[in-house]
DNA sequence: AGTTATAGTTTACGCGCGAAAATATTTTAC
DNA sequence: GTAAAATATTTTCGCGCGTAAACTATAACT
């Protein structure tokens, strides 16, 4: 039906399976099988013969047959809550690269912001018998028992959003440190900040950041001031914009400094400020200082560029992946649940 | 090794394969097989018996065994050039949803902006014997023969970037219409625009837009004016910002109206303008009007919000997917290569 | 009731490979 | 140079399922 005329190779030896390929090389199939599992595991002489033949007829093992018979595949699942969020797109990208470089086959999935789809994804992933899974759960709205069950069956490292007791390990950023750094900076350089957040955030990090804000303000002897805006879903910029317009049109913020729970909300806030003619920045003549958390990939291109605290993307991705490989080598279980929090870095730009 | 204690189900009937499940139901395995391929294909009475049993022991066919034996899998590959670009993330998201809803199993891949990785992805995808593939190629830098070979072997619908003669169909947006709409609008409402683009764009759409710009300007009797900036890779915002700063510091644009080849470049331009204190917008008192193409997901949150021409994401995703299903049903070949271009919509915001 | 048609079910076989056990080969030690 | 150990290779079996062909039960006609 498709491309019946032969491949581009010359000798037209159409290899259909490992048997035929082994016959062509002149050795038995299981030896070829061993070669594909680990080229080092066969004698150098036979290895060469295989590799020479490989150049002539580009045979590759049937991936389904391989995975059916292997007890553990080389598949690594990567699951994020929402792939259209550049933050997750970026970290997924980094994780994918590491999987490929380590000889794994990444399988990337998004929960599309929906708990039921998250379960579907995990259910589908389970069937793939993955060697391991890197999972950033939806968080608060995740179906906890289902996630837990999955983590019991498949070696899983959680990242970004922690769920206590679930998964063999968690790798993320230190939410307290995010906030302590921004609050510290803002209070040192101007008015203490109020805090701009969603009232019912899906992500548990948001709650930790609010708590950190309270703690820091208390510690520094300032009155905390919370602006919790309405909104659900993953259109954070629009939620932030709407919420901010609402606040601005009702008299504005109580201080000239606003700390946003995350950059996407901050981007929405900046948009609202611009619409209302407020000048944002730390220069004299500005009406408002705005800072935030995450270092979203576009934060440096907002107007003004957004002062924020940055995830150490690289460290998080590295450690999450190496933790997973450790977990896989340990047989899928750690003696104790491992948690690793990386310290964010304050990124001073022009919004605060 | 993992979770040795039984599942949550009651009767502890640990079904290991379809044989056991069929025995439990009391019918033969092939009938069960038929059921899973199409529940309608078995007698209602047996169907009910299967579904009753299914509730008690949540058996699901081994996906590898299924795919090994089926001539065509239910896998649909989705390949984009760069997943960390929100434009592709968004369209990939839409395509994924449609695949799932239609009972396919989407497999999402990014070429990470690299032609060699694009080939790797396609090579890996080929092994999955996908029913079909939705491919947005890297474009100009893609390894043409490899892409062509792949499309010959796997039913493939190209989207976003066309490559003539490759793939059975292409679905995208009409680049000429993008530009004709923006140029028309800009010239009607103010000075004719100069054109801001990358000198060596990876994406072929960029070339078509430049040509369209020339054509439109000529048609309207204005002198075209091109600003082609340096830069490679996928960090378009930064490329746009750097290029714009360069232009601004050397005396600025020749007109007060700039049309950007795409929104990401435009976001960089806006950032540069802000840095240099230029007021962008169509109001009196503004120094520059800026418009662009794509309607990038964040374009409405720039400061000022970006006037642009929007892809009809929905129509493109719908038609790309339905074209693929048509292609699959047609056996992988169309009599004639199908091309479909959707007309973008002008989105007036405040930047121009 | 006796064909024939039709849908449903079963028999029999094969897919392409991994893995343990059995056998052959090479290496090491003395 | 030979026996033991270490390493390679082959034999044999089985994984879980799709599918064509053979078969059987139900329905539809004369």
Characterization of the model:
Two copies of one chain form a homodimer. By secondary structure, chain A is α/β, with parallel strands linked by helices. Chain A folds into three domains: 18-61, no CATH class; 75-172 and 314-342, Response regulator (Rossmann fold, 3-Layer(aba) Sandwich); 175-310, Rossmann fold (3-Layer(aba) Sandwich), CATH 3.40.50. Chain A contains twelve helices and twelve strands. A six-stranded parallel sheet of chain A has the order 2-1-3-4-5-11, sandwiched between helices. A six-stranded mixed sheet of chain A has the order 7-6-8-9-10-12, sandwiched between helices. In chain A, helix 5 (86-101) links the parallel strand 1 (75-80) and strand 2 (105-110). In chain A, helix 8 packs across helix 9 and helix 10 crosses helix 11 (263-275). The termini of chain A are far apart. Mean pLDDT of chain A is 91; it is low at 1-12. The interface between A and B is large, with 57 and 57 residues. The structure holds a DNA duplex (30 and 30 nucleotides).
Identify the notable features of this structure and list them briefly.
Rossmann fold, six-stranded parallel sheet, 3 domains, homodimer, 352 residues, elongated, disordered N terminus, alpha/beta, six-stranded mixed sheet
């Amino acid at each position: 039906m498709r491309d019946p005329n032969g491949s581009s190779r010359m000798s037209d030896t159409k290899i259909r399976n490992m048997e035929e390929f082994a016959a062509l090389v002149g050795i038995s199939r299981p030896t070829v099988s061993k070669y594909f599992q680990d080229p080092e595991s066969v004698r150098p002489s036979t290895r060469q013969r295989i590799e020479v033949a490989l150049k002539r007829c580009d045979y590759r093992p049937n991936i389904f047959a391989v995975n059916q018979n292997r007890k553990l595949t080389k598949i690594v699942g990567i699951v994020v809550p929402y792939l259209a969020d550049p933050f997750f797109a970026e970290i997924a990208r980094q994780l994918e690269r590491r999987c490929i470089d380590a000889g794994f086959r990444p399988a990337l999935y998004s929960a599309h912001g929906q708990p039921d789809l998250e379960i579907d994804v995990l259910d589908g992933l389970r069937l793939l018998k993955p060697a391991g899974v890197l999972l950033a759960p939806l968080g608060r709205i995740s179906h906890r028992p289902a996630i837990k069950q999955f983590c019991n069956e498949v070696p899983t490292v959680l990242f970004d959003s922690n769920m206590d007791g679930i998964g063999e390990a968690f790798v993320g950023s230190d939410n307290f440190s995010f906030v302590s750094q921004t609050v510290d900076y803002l209070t040192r350089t101007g008015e203490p900040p109020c805090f701009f957040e969603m009232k019912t955030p899906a992500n548990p990090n948001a709650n930790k950041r609010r708590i950190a804000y309270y703690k820091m303000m208390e510690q520094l002897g300032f009155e905390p001031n919370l602006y919790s805006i309405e909104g659900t879903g993953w259109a954070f910029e629009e939620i932030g914009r709407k919420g901010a317009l609402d606040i601005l049109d009702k008299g504005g913020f109580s201080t000239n400094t606003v700390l946003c729970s995350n950059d996407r909300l901050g981007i929405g806030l900046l948009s609202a400020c611009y619409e209302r003619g407020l000048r944002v920045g730390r220069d004299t003549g500005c009406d408002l200082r705005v800072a935030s958390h995450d270092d979203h990939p576009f934060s440096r291109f907002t107007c003004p560029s957004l002062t924020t605290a940055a995830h150490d993307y690289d460290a998080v991705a590295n450690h999450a992946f190496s933790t997973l490989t450790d977990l896989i080598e340990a047989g899928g279980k750690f003696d104790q649940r491992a948690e690793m929090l990386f310290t964010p870095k304050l990124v001073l730009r022009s919004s605060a």
